[in-house]
Design a protein that fits this description.
The protein contains four helices and four strands; from the N terminus they run ββαααβαβ. The chain is an alpha/beta fold. Strands 1-2-3-4 form a four-stranded parallel β-sheet, covered by helices on one side. Strand 3, helix 4 (79-88) and strand 4 (92-95) form a beta-alpha-beta unit. The longest helix is centred in the middle third of the chain and has 15 residues, at 54-68. The chain is globular and about 50 Å long. The relative contact order is 0.14. The model has no long low-confidence stretch (mean pLDDT 82).
């Protein structure tokens, strides 16, 4: 197994491990969900997270707080998440945006058989899966 030097700086996509000297790229954190759950139950009821039982919810919230700790900076995909983290939590965040902006280039599209798409997300329709 490769060892990561404590001198290197790493970017993690989501808070999965407690990696020293790392930034964490996030689009949502459990503390936001807890806030919405407590302060805006009608929004939370349609969030896609409403079916998670209390024990699992609390475990994920606690685990993510421990993984992020107070020594990592969250690279946020949105302004509202950055503002929330910096105002409402002990973490610090910097807005970096989501995805990549590239110029549109006209290309010919050739149909290929046996194409495979990897879909990552909770809501197939909300994330545009039908497209």
């Amino acid at each position: 197994m490769n060892q990561i030097s404590n001198d290197s700086v790493n970017v993690q996509v989501h808070s999965i491990v407690n990696l020293p000297n790392s930034y964490i790229y996030e689009d949502l954190i459990w503390e936001v969900l807890a806030y919405i759950r407590n302060n805006d139950p009608s929004s939370f009821s349609i969030s896609g997270f409403q079916k998670i039982n209390d024990k699992t919810f609390k475990y994920q919230l606690t685990r993510q707080r421990e993984l992020i700790g107070n020594d990592k900076t969250i690279l946020s995909m949105s302004h509202w998440l950055t503002n929330f983290i910096n105002k409402e939590t002990s973490h610090r965040a910097v807005y970096v945006g989501g995805g990549i902006n590239t110029p549109l280039i006209k290309t010919s599209i050739k149909k290929r058989d046996n194409q495979t798409f990897l879909f990552v997300g909770r809501s197939f329709y909300r994330k545009g899966g039908i497209l």
